Fold this sequence. Notes:
single chain, mainly alpha, Sodium/glucose cotransporter, 2 domains, Sodium:Solute_Symporter, Sodium-solute symporter, putative, Na/solute_symporter
Amino acid sequence: MENLQTLAGPVVILLMLLFFGGSLYMSLRIRKRKENADGYMTAGGRIGFGISAASMTATWIWASSMYASATSGYTYGISGPIHYGLWGALMILLIYPFGKRIRKVAPNAHTIAEVMFARHGRSSQLMLAGSNVLGSVISLTSNLIAGGALISMLSPFTFTQGILAIGAGVLLYTLWSGFRASVLTDFAQVCLMLGAVIVIIPVVFFAAGGPSLFETGAVHVTPQQADFFSSDAFFNQGAPYIAAVLAYAIGNQTIAQRLFAVRQDLIKKTFITATFGYGATIIGIGMLGVIALYAGITPTGGDVNNLIPQMAATYLSPLLLCVFFVMIIGSLSSTADADLTALSSIVMADIYGQNIAGKKKANPRTMVLIGRITMIVAMVAGLFFAGSHLNILDLLVFVGALWGALVFPVIASFYWKRVTNLAFSVSVVVALAAFLPVRFEWIALTGPIAVISDVLSTIGIGVVLGLMAFGFFGKRVALIVGTVAIVAAAPFSIGFLHTYPVLSGSLVAYAVSTIVCVALTLPSKKEDFDFAVIAERTGNFDVETDQDLDADLAALESESDSESTSR
């Protein structure tokens, strides 16, 4: 284990120059002298299937998800990557039924927060925008942490030098064309990632001992880690992630941005394709953690963020190590540029476009400048926070749970005409107030407080499963599924769930936001909302002809075709 394979400094510099230089070249090829504000945010809303599916897949096969899946495998054993990858894939699948409704009522929007402004007003908009700013900065930070760990492990360069180089590279190619650059480079990046995973995982597995490893390494695992149906893995990893995935599907701007960019008739096809691509890849890469567990490997420095690069440095040849290096750089870049474009669109559309200038007076050229400045500020913030070396898996679960407070109010706002701004805003604030003490154990979950927490968590189970059923099967089935889930879970969950604060916090957020939102909506005397108004209040900031938009999209398609042909 001490004889780790590393890459020489000049080799690392060459690989990064080739990768980021190629990405910059692709971005410059589609650069416009006068960048269009709507194109900079959503590429005109008419991206085709190939680029959209590749972009969605690449954005969620990110370095942090790879590292977190491997951490889950190392921590919880064979079932860890299954819980991480399967429920993460479910998150992508859940987008399309709700996404079709969102695009129907807001066909030309740029952010979910922008739609909430049209639906409710400023407070609900800023809640969604604020949560996404926090989520995207955390996501960007975790990707930089993953890249810094990679470079410090596999090269003579330090963690700090690594995150600075990666941050500069991603910022350089994304700054020019915004979202258009992000989706175009995603196509190339997903090809690199999928090809590398297919080769690298089997090589590491057989180099570590192959099938016999599960016999010789059994001494290193606990009964729970060896159990495919591990309750420890389910309650600490699987169940919190099931709750979190719905929140990611509804609340995350990087997803919403791709939802608003793809052609409306291709939403279902795009996200189903991305579901399978993500699930297979992330479960596969998570097996590196399982292999490390059975091989008795201890993460360097006790930091599980080092686990994946450590496995590569232990078992791969120099050539495959270069391939692995590019795979991780590609995976983190595909999501880091998505975070930058998500943050820029929030500031452009929600802060400047709606709240400072106003939609009718917003200057498109000023919007693009603001978007670019936002990217620079966001990257500086990500670099600053990356120095804290936070645990990536904890970051992801926390953000997903935090967004859980928004899920029911957001979904209800797209279907239920009577939901008011007061119901939306108060339900989210109260849910967050209930979530934080439970999640971080600020109060002792004992006695009556534990019972109340468990009752709310049980209701949260019904809310989560009911909302999932609602997306695919409608209200009647959702009510049946939610009610049955609560009744069936109650005898087992009450008196038990409070012992898992991560899971309880997330479920409490779902339950409280739902109860408060419904309680404030039912007695409302306000007239039913006309959803047609949303399409009128949202839309393009920059007037551009259809021919110009079609030319932009043709450029994107031709670039992706040329990349595919070159491979």
